[in-house]
Amino acid sequence: MLARKKLSDPKALLTAAASFAATAMLIRSVANDFVPMELRSYFFSRISKLCCKFSSTLIVVIDEFQGHSTNKVFEAVDTYLGTKVTPYVRRIKVSKGDEDTKLIVTADRDEEIVDVYEDLQVSWILVCTEIESSGTRSGGDNNSFSKLERKAFELKFHQQHREKVLNSYLPYILERAKAIKEEIKAIKLHTVVYGAWDSNAINLDHPMSFKTLAMDPDLKMELMDDLNNFVEGKEFHRRTGKAWKRGYLLYGPPGTGKSSLIAAMANHLSYDIYDLDLTSVRSNCGLRSLLLSMSNRSILVIEDIDCTINLQNRESSRESGDNSKNQVTLSGLLNFIDGLWSCCGEERIIVFTTNHKDRLDPALLRPGRMDMHIHMSYCNFSGFKQLAFNYHGISEHQLFEEIEGLIGEVKVTPAEAAGELMKSRDAEISLQGLINFLQNKKTQPHDKDETDKDAKGDHQEGKEKKDGEEEKVKQAEGDKADTSKDAKGDRPEGTEKQDGEEEKLN
Ligand SMILES: Nc1ncnc2c1ncn2[C@@H]1O[C@H](COP(=O)(O)OP(=O)(O)OP(=O)(O)O)[C@@H](O)[C@H]1O
């Protein structure tokens, strides 16, 4: 009774705590002075091992470095945990690299982050310890010691989840981190300078997206599905033994949005663009090293392929001898599209553009080479409505009816329509300007626009075109034995477009 009373007295409690602390310090200093360090560390390690034996917690340590290189798992965890920082975390770090478009937030050292993955709850903590590293001072042979910091993530969880953490949770983090990095990464536009990709690629800050692109809605949807299937197609490509790449041929008159579509694709996928001007490449060898030095998850663009060097005229280059060593040839290029070299690198998209599809070598049009042929054509009413919404935020207006009539009669490119619509901030003035422009065009004699005539085909022409193409293709097959493959086997399955194309060729 007396003892309980004594303990409930705060003064007595304080005195007891102070004397306990003093005793502990005395024991510690006696131990430090009289017990050898080896014995002490042995003693402590036994105690901690004993504690671990009874503990059900497992700790996975992920060091920042593995030998001299950075540990990829550490980097991935760092990125991943940035998305798990909750308001309960008291100390956070914020950073941003040259390549990033957003701030990167991570938890600071010793801050615990709790994560839940399916039925598994784990806790993460970044532990930093100072270590001494010995080195020789420059200019002398004295050994010096400098302090280094060793960083490691400690992952704690119940030991029953060991398999799940190692086989499922950590691989999941690696995948997520890759996706997060792609999201925050600025899209780069690479060009060739002195035969190599410019090391200071610029940020592609192009605002075009599939939302703002004026394009036939069904075709737009089909293309977006195709791109999404491609991105998720790792397993499919591995299973079918096909290189993980996809080719698109964009064709149509100037100003119909081929470049805009490429920007929309890059923004949609967060892929870098490698803009290749073939005239700046000296040989197939140069082309090979350029293509091999491209990063994965990227789009290779070769614009106006019909205008670049002597690609379409292989016969003449053959007659004048094999000059593949000192110039870029079509077969050199095709080797990268579907020859052996195409398997170097993965998740790559190749886009060719042309204003004159009919001028291309049939070998380029061969099925399986370019997976989708996309016709970008003149503005129709739905395209115009998209542009009116982009520039003036309007979905209807009293002048729309008149414009619908005129657009049905006059060939106007989206670039021309966009040019009129951006002349004034006042929607009415712009629309009236477009009407005047269309009326003017209507009264002018028609240009004989061969570009669109030949272009119209791919989606609408059907049988007539197909037969012609088949003949050209057959001719081309014999032409390129080194890169040719069976058209059917070469073609990935799974999209309507491909099946349709296949039908066309059979
Ligand atoms: N389909 C479209 N949707 C929205 N804007 C477009 C479209 N087509 C063209 N434009 C507008 O016109 C401008 C020029 O278009 P773009 O360069 O994409 O055409 P292009 O077909 O690539 O032309 P070229 O064959 O001459 O390279 C774009 O910057 C954009 O403002």
Give a topology summary:
Layout: H1 2-8, H2 10-34, H3 37-54, E1 57-63, E2 65-66, E3 69-70, H4 72-81, E4 92-95, E5 104-107, E6 112-117, E7 120-136, E8 143-158, H5 162-184, E9 188-193, E10 196-197, E11 202-203, H6 217-231, H7 234-240, E12 245-251, H8 258-269, E13 272-275, H9 284-292, E14 298-302, H10 314-319, H11 330-338, E15 348-354, H12 362-365, E16 372-375, H13 381-392, H14 400-409, H15 414-421, H16 427-443, H17 450-455, H18 457-460, H19 463-479, H20 487-490, H21 496-505
Parallel strand pairs: 9-13, 12-15, 12-16, 13-14, 14-15
Antiparallel strand pairs: 1-8, 2-3, 4-5, 6-7, 7-8, 9-10, 9-11
Bound molecules: adenosine-5'-triphosphate.
In brief, what are we looking at here?
With 506 residues, the chain is an alpha/beta fold. It has 21 helices and 16 strands.
Our measurement of the CA-to-CA distance between the termini, rounded to an integer number of angstroms, reads 102 Å
- Quote the beta fraction: 15-25%
Could you list the spans in which at least 5 consecutive residues all have pLDDT below 50? 136-141, 312-324, 448-506
The counted number of beta strands is: 16
Overall mean confidence score, pLDDT: 77
Number of discrete domains? 3
Largest sheet: 8 strands, mixed
Tell me the CATH architecture of the largest domain.
Answer: 3-Layer(aba) Sandwich
At the fourth level of CATH, the homologous superfamily of the largest domain is P-loop containing nucleotide triphosphate hydrolases
Tally of DSSP helical segments: 21
Question: What is the CATH topology classification name of the largest domain?
Answer: Rossmann fold
Please write the CATH class name of the largest domain. Answer: Alpha Beta
Radius of gyration: 33 Å
The 3D shape can be described as: elongated
Bin the helical content.
40-55%
Q: What molecules are bound to this protein?
A: adenosine-5'-triphosphate
- Helices and strands: which structural class? alpha/beta
Protein name: AAA+ ATPase domain-containing protein
GO biological process, one term: response to stress
Region (Disordered): 439-506
Keywords: ATP-binding, Hydrolase, Magnesium, Nucleotide-binding
